[in-house]
Structures are given as C-alpha cells and as structure tokens.
Amino acid sequence: MRRLRRPRFRRSPFLICYWGEEGLVFENYAARTRTSAGPLACAILDFANRWRSPREFFQNFPDYSAASLRNALDQLTRRSLLWRSDRKETPVEKAMETWKDWNPAAGFFHFTTKDVEYEHDPDIVNRELRKQAKTWPMPSPVKRYPRARQILLAAPKNESEFPRVLLARHTWRQFSRGRVAVRTLGELLWLAGRVQRWVSVPGIGRFALKTSPSGGALHPLEIYVLSLRIKGLSPGMYHYAADRHRLELLKRGATRHDIARYVPGQPWYQDAAALFLFTARFPRPQWKYRFSRSYRAVLLDAGHLGQTFLLAGTWLGLAPFCTMALADTKLESDLGVDGVTESVIFAVGFGTRPPGVDWAPHPKPAHKR
User: Fold this and answer.
1) What number of other Cβ atoms are within 10 A of residue 145's Cβ?
2) Which residue among 144, 154, 185, 189 is least crowded, i.e. fewest CB within 10 A of its CB?
3) Residues 356, 358, 363, 366, CA torsion sign
4) Is the pLDDT of residue 363 over 80?
5) pLDDT at 118 over 90
6) If we measure between CA atoms, which residue out of 176, 181, 184, 273 comes closest to residue 232?
7) Which residues are CB-contacts of 264 (< 8 A; sequence separation ≥ 6)?
C-alpha cells in the first residue's frame, strides 16, 4: 500500500497583524477572518514563510511538545492563517493573484470593509448622534482663516441652465408610484455611462472616453441596472453595454424587496423606479497602475460617475439618489461576479418626483407611518 504523504504548511499570503484591545490580532483579508493569537502563533507563522513539514516545526520548536504543535497547526489552519498543501485554493484566493501589486494596503481595506451592518431606523441613529454630540461636538463643515486677507468673489448668474441643474440636485428619499419611460432611462445612460469616443494608442490599445473622468482613461466601472418601474422594460437585472448603448438581460423579475436586500437600512429607496449598481473591474487599473494608491482612483471614479448620473437625472426631471450602504456579498452573488476581480462599489438610482415636494429628506420608516 502506498504511504500517504503528510501535508505541509505555509503562511497565508493575505495576513495583516496589529495590536487590538484583545492583544495581537491576525486578519486574513481574503478569507475575511479575524483572530487574536499569542507568541507561539506569531513564531509559527513567521517560520512558515514557505512550505514546511510537521517534522520541521518539531525541530524548530523543541521546547514544545509534538501534541501542542499539532494542535497549534490545526488551529491556525482552521482560522485561515496557515495553508495546508493538501487543500485546494479557494476561487477567491486564486483570483487574489490579480491584487498582488496592490496588497496588502488596498486589499486589506477593500475586503475588510465589505458587508457592514447598518442601522435601519434613522430615529435610533439620530438619538445616538445627539448623545455623542454632547461629548464630541459635530466638526464644522467649513474651514476659515479669519486673520487672512479676504477677497470677495463674484457669484454666477443662476438664470442659465447649468447652474439651475447643479443647484437643483438633491438626494431624494421619497418617490411617487409613477413609471419612467424607457426612453428616459436610455437618455440617462447615454449621458452618464456611454462610451462617447475611442482613442487608440499604437502598441498599447484603445482607451474609452466618457463624460466622467477616469484615472488613466481606464474606466474600471461597469453598470448594472435593476429595473422596477420602467415603462417599456420588463422588471429584472440588466448589464449596460457602454460601447453599444444596449441593455443585456441577466435575470428576469425584480421587486422593491430586492432594493431592500441590496441597500440595507434604507427602506425609503424601495419605491425607486430603477437602481444602478456600479462594479469595479479591478484588472483594468491594476494592469497600468501597479501600486496600491491606485485603489483611491477607483473610488474617485465611482464618485465622478455617480455625480454625472445625479446631474443628468436632475436635468431629466427625475428624483435621483446615491448610496454606498450596500450588501456587498449578496449583490455580488446575484450579479454573478467573484467579488475580487469584479466587486460592487457604489449605487445610484432614481424615481419619479412626488407632487408638491421640492426634495425629500429622510422619511419615517414604513412601520412608523
């Protein structure tokens, strides 16, 4: 009978360690696991910089019994801090290869800030903020240099169309039950998301140009449309093909409960006519910018694109909104993306304006109306 080869162990390449209130903390940002550990764990992980057999661990740590070392190896493996040679890499770990130039700084931030728990009741949030403000007052929204020389500036003439649109942009949180024409949806996507022209660079490739700026003209963001009340378009999830100005149907059927699942803690958006979900295709910027600071550019791109959508929606007479409070993993699963090479970043949407309302702040939750 052929003797089975004993597994070897190696430290996960996705570890960050830091001091927390509970002591030394190890976090695997790819597996999204977090655990506190003692000196032995730290020494074992330091030694496991390459594949090591159990015998090598026993030889390197003679002051510990074989049983205690086996237990430590088992515990560190269970907590995703060590890899076993007889274990297959997960799809996430394989996909993390594309992040190698951005890790650990960007990867740690991106993956450990997913799936935050959100408070659903704004009354509770405001109550906690009022309590906090008693000991930590709200920071001033402006900064001034009172001793500096002051130069009075001219204001624009607000009669022209662009200042009116800019000043009319608000985050809406109340909507009528009216439907929006698919033509209006198409106009919004054409203005905000469509590739307007291409620029070819010999020996490198083609770069897309849109109405929003993007770092390196790489435009890592993809747009998915959750259609709910669009006249002429069936409810469902669509992908926007920005080069052809077309919607690609991914999944039929959508209800207001899908919005509640995707943007948790924000029940006022359930009456929206459509929700746009921005995902980032990270290999696009990672191909050119091989340093972690470039992750900032992806987030800035989302802000640029979001504001373009909001202004275009305002100009079209819609009630637009935006949010980054997302159920990341649930969304990525429903979109069929891996969350590593493509991950959800931001969301905007719109509804129809309710009569007699200029714009709408936070309404009361449905159960309190």
Assistant:
1) 7
2) 154
3) positive
4) no
5) no
6) 181
7) 118, 120, 325, 326, 327
Report the C-alpha gap between 193 and 270 in whole angstroms: 23
Task: Report the predicted TM-score, pTM, of the whole model to 2 decimal places.
Answer: 0.91
- Tell which CATH classification among 2.30.29, 3.90.930, 1.10.3470, 2.60.40 matches the domain 9-87: 3.90.930
CA distance 48 to 71: 15
3 state SS of 197:
strand
Q: Chain-wide mean pLDDT for the chain? A: 93
- Residue 73's identity, in one-letter code, is L
* Domain boundary assignment for the chain: 9-87, 165-368
CB < 8 Å & 24+ apart, contacts of 201-210 = 208/242, 208/243, 210/242
Q: Name the residue among 93, 41, 45, 86 with its Cα closest to residue 68.
A: 41
Indicate the CATH number for domain 165-368. 3.40.109.10
Neighbours of 13 (CB within 10 A): 14
